[in-house]
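Quick one: structure for this chain?
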Amino acid sequence: QVELVESGGGLVQPGGSLRLSCAVSGSIFRINAMGWYRQAPGKERELVADITSGGSTKYAESVKGRFTISRDNAKITVYLQMNSLKPEDTAVYYCNVRSASYDYWGQGTQVTVSS
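Got it. Here's what it folds into:
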């Protein structure tokens, strides 16, 4: 059974930083990409960033230059370093792992940016 365990969310002031982690337990055959999505109240879930097995990255325009995605293949873990956080970054952040045949999702972790 596959489980994605997220950590690192919380409350931070504007301009602050947080680092999200997502560790995969269980076996997934042929991971194509790992990434992070977010969903704010009343809005649709959106891609924040993802990273392919080859290391190519993609970011939402709103987070470019502030967020950095990385992965540790040995630990099957993906990270999201979030700097210069803004109130509009407030959302539930979901880890996503995309394999050849299935999309896996974490349970979500709340990030709140507020003074």
